[in-house]
Write a structure and sequence with these properties.
This is N-acylneuraminate cytidylyltransferase. It comes from Chrysochromulina tobinii. Keywords: Membrane, Nucleotidyltransferase, Transferase, Transmembrane, Transmembrane helix. This protein has 7 helices and 13 strands. With 288 residues, the chain is α/β, with parallel strands linked by helices. It has one domain: Spore Coat Polysaccharide Biosynthesis Protein SpsA, Chain A (Alpha-Beta Complex), CATH 3.90.550. A 7-stranded mixed beta sheet has the order 7-6-3-8-12-9-13, with helices on both faces. Strands 1-2 form a two-stranded antiparallel ribbon. The radius of gyration is 20 Å and the shape is globular.
Length: 288
């Protein structure tokens, strides 16, 4: 009698994955256009000695759940770097790589060329703090719940306010000032961190949108909410990556090039996370 393969223990969560269950075809795509304005060639700029896209490529690879990992780009240098990092390359159409093009247009361009998948994972190259087990745990949620799509988020304990543009009167949006909760008594807000998204082929074919249908959420660590829009952001994220990033055997840990100490690294983590969460929560301020 043929024995079933042994279960696999995921690194962080310590949960068992039954590898005897057939794995669907899961494809990862990483959009990486060459026209970054804030930081030129951001997607291949070195972060602790590694191209930015290498961080998510290696994390996806070592999750061992993806049949294929693609970088969708219009840029020759990014394409060459992606191949060197171990990814396949999709040459995206020019109209999907402009500063005004939507992510959905790039996803459609990719899906039209590569329709053979059951689940798609959109991974943002600008989220270098993703770990392999994040992909595994999120897919477990996706399949256990028989969901159509999944979004990643972090929990933020921030009080939100809005100001009426006419009267200039301020109003609390997510708590009652007369009943101001203590942090330990409040669940906070879940804020989309843009790290990665899962969706089924059936959902995409029906809607052309990455999110919708039966939508579930995977909560990630607060420090995974990062912004990489300036060189100051880059320096702070370098410290965060050193402390929290994923370092496979073929990409050993390298210290930040700032002469930082553990104390300055901790400060950078708190400062960067605070700035990023403030930016991420800003969109909520306009809700009625």
């Amino acid at each position: 009698m043929t024995k079933s393969p042994p279960p696999v223990l995921t690194p962080r969560a310590g949960k068992v994955v039954n590898t005897s269950e057939p794995m669907p075809k899961i494809v990862a795509v990483i959009p990486a256009r060459g026209g970054s304005v804030s930081i030129p060639k951001k997607n291949i700029k070195l972060l602790l000695g590694r191209p930015l896209i290498d961080w998510v490529i290696k994390a996806a690879r070592d999750s061992k759940i993806f049949a294929e990992i693609w970088v969708s780009t219009d840029d020759d240098l990014i394409a060459a770097s992606a191949i060197k990092c171990g990814a396949l390359v999709h040459r995206r159409a020019a109209h999907t790589a402009t500063s005004t093009a939507s992510t959905e247009s790039a996803l459609k361009d990719f899906a039209d060329a590569h329709p053979d998948y059951e689940y798609m994972c959109l991974i943002q190259a600008t989220s270098p703090l993703i770990r392999p087990e994040d992909f595994v745990e999120a897919m477990r949620i996706m399949r256990d719940q028989k969901a159509d799509s999944l979004v990643t988020a972090v929990r933020a304990h921030r009080f939100l306010w809005s100001v009426d543009p006419t009267t200039k009167v301020a109003k609390a949006k997510n708590y009652e000032p007369l009943k101001r909760p203590r942090r330990q008594d409040w669940e906070g807000e879940l804020v989309e961190n843009g790290a990665f998204y899962y969706y089924t082929k059936a959902h995409w074919d029906a809607t052309g949108c990455r999110l919708g249908g039966k939508l579930v959420l995977y909560e990630m660590a607060e420090h995974t909410f990062v912004e990489l829009d300036s060189l100051v952001d880059w320096q702070m994220v370098s410290h965060m990556a050193y402390d929290f990033g994923y370092f496979p055997e073929d990409a050993p840990r390298q210290a930040p090039d700032m002469g930082g100490t553990a104390q300055s690294s901790t400060f950078a983590v708190g400062l960067a996370t605070g700035f990023a969460l403030a930016a991420g929560l800003a969109f909520l301020m306009g809700r009625k």
